Amino acid sequence: MTDPRILPLEGVENFRDYGGYAVRGGRVASGQLFRAAHQARATPADLAVMADLKLAIVVDLRRPRERDNDPSLRHEGFAAQVIQCDLGDQTEAPHVAFLRETDLTPESARAFFLDYYDKAPFEPRHQELFGRYFAALAKDEGPVLIHCTAGKDRTGLLAALTHHVLGVHDDDVRADYLLTNLAARVDARLPMITQALEASLGKRPSETAVRAFLGVEASYLDAAFASIQARSGSIEAYLDAIGADAATREAIRARLIV
């Protein structure tokens, strides 16, 4: 099973176009909005594909330590603006601590992600990056790539907020978010990831726990938007607070709706 949005790269997981959805007045442009996991294991063929995309902006949502551990590979002539953030400390990503310290049951994985998504919109690092992304999206021409480590949580939240700005229907927002479960090749990678976790952690997680950790559930995204509504009053008020005000949002729509 495939999906035309997914770019089947060799060493980069979850690489896909998150444009193309129907909205009032037209549809979101295709070939302008891309999302992915990290590119530290991109093959020469992958780099050639990314070169052909002519990316103008790359938003790296990872922490400094994540970037240091898996530095992005770039094609010859790479000239995109890179947006990243050193705000905060050099601590490990929360999911790494979770993997090391918990019993890795499906229930603990889901509880972790529900808590993570409740807090993620208000993480200062995320707010800075999201605000800079929306500002660049409003004023700069050319395709953009947003990514984190797995391309599913931080990236998924930012893609969903972008869809909200553009007026994408909630059903399509959710479908795009859930496409990670196909694009990240969860089934194919499950044995390898389970073995790697056992080797690094000294304990073997269950298949259902690893599947819960590698994939996404609609309830996670719902938790993020519920948190935004509860703490900011509305998604628009949240966007205003991070610098993506009404004028910025209108500029984004004018640029990307065709």
Describe this structure in words.
- It is globular, with a radius of gyration of 18 Å.
- The longest helix is centred in the middle third of the chain and has 16 residues.
- The chain is α/β, with parallel strands linked by helices.
- Helices cover 53% and strands 8% of the residues.
- The mean pLDDT is 92.
- Helix 4 packs parallel to helix 10, helix 4 packs parallel to helix 11 and helix 6 runs antiparallel to helix 7.
What value does the Rg take, in angstroms? 18 Å
Termini, distance in Å? 29 Å
Number of helices: 13
> Globular, elongated, flat, extended or rod-shaped: what is the shape?
globular
- Major β-sheet, in short? 5 strands, mixed
Give helix and strand order, one letter per element, not per position. EEEEHEHEHHHEHHHHHHHH
Number of strands: 7
Q: Which class best fits the helix and strand makeup? A: alpha/beta
**Unreliable stretches:** none
- DSSP strand (E) fraction? 5-15%
| Approximate helicity band | 40-55%
The quaternary structure here is single chain
- Mean of residue pLDDT values: 92
In short:
Helix content is 53%, strand content 8%.
